[in-house]
Amino acid sequence: MKKINLLFTVLALLVLVVAPVSVLAQETLTIQGSSTVLPIAQKAAEVYMEKNSSVDISVRGGGSGNGIAALIDGAVDIADASRFVKQTEVEAAVGNGIYPVPHRVAMDGIAVVINPANSVTELSLEDLMNIYTGKVTNWSEFGGPDQEIVVISRDSSSGTFEVFNELVLEGNRLTQGALLQASNGAVAGVIADTEGAIGYVGLGYLSDSLKAVKVSGVLPSNATVASGEYPIARPLFMFTNGWPEGLTSQFINFILSAEGQKIVKEQGFVPLH
Fold this sequence. Notes:
The structure is a single chain. By secondary structure, the chain is an alpha/beta fold. The protein has two domains: 2-106 and 236-266, D-Maltodextrin-Binding Protein, domain 2 (3-Layer(aba) Sandwich); 108-233, D-Maltodextrin-Binding Protein, domain 2 (3-Layer(aba) Sandwich), CATH 3.40.190.10. The chain is built from ten helices and eleven strands. The strands form two sheets. Strands 1, 2, 3, 4, 6, 7, 8, 9 and 11 form a nine-stranded mixed beta sheet that branches. Helix 3 (64-72) runs parallel beside helix 4 (87-95). The radius of gyration is 23 Å and the shape is globular.
């Protein structure tokens, strides 16, 4: 009986000793930023953690600007961004001893979407500029219903907004009547619920509740983005502080691997190879 009690005591002590060691051995990685890159980062993190039980990866959205700001502050290991880092951000980073290094992980098209009830099927880049600057306010101007255009846009912290502003608005001011949304998902939700609405989302957010329109005669798709035909396209990035090492490097290499690029494609984006 004494031997049994001694055995249980030894086992209990082993649990107390081993448990803290396993906790200490847990590697962590924090990722924050673009809601466009979010589905890629989340799925890749899920798969990577399944393969590596000692790794804990935290993934958050919040927009490209917020992700890069968190990297500048040293609060994250990886900043997801659907645009390139700005010169002002580089200067702020260097001032903090942070050196942002870009890693292109995928390509994406910014799909222009409307409510499925809308009969319009195609818009030109000029049409989009006129809509988003407030020069045209009724769908009848484009052969659609006599209905007010409800302009939906991402907010200024969004990399998607930055690219759309550059490629479509060409730096012109967004109409003051635009309803600003914090994420691709939020834009998709408003479009699906509002018959007169128009907005834009990453390819990975297209669904049956949205109607993608042709832009200058080309529908957004993996094929038209990869070929360069679709006019509103951009690379997607993950930024690190300097050249990555350790777990950060291993995770980015995983996304760039054949398996990682398969995840990119499965999430509705355009793989690099």
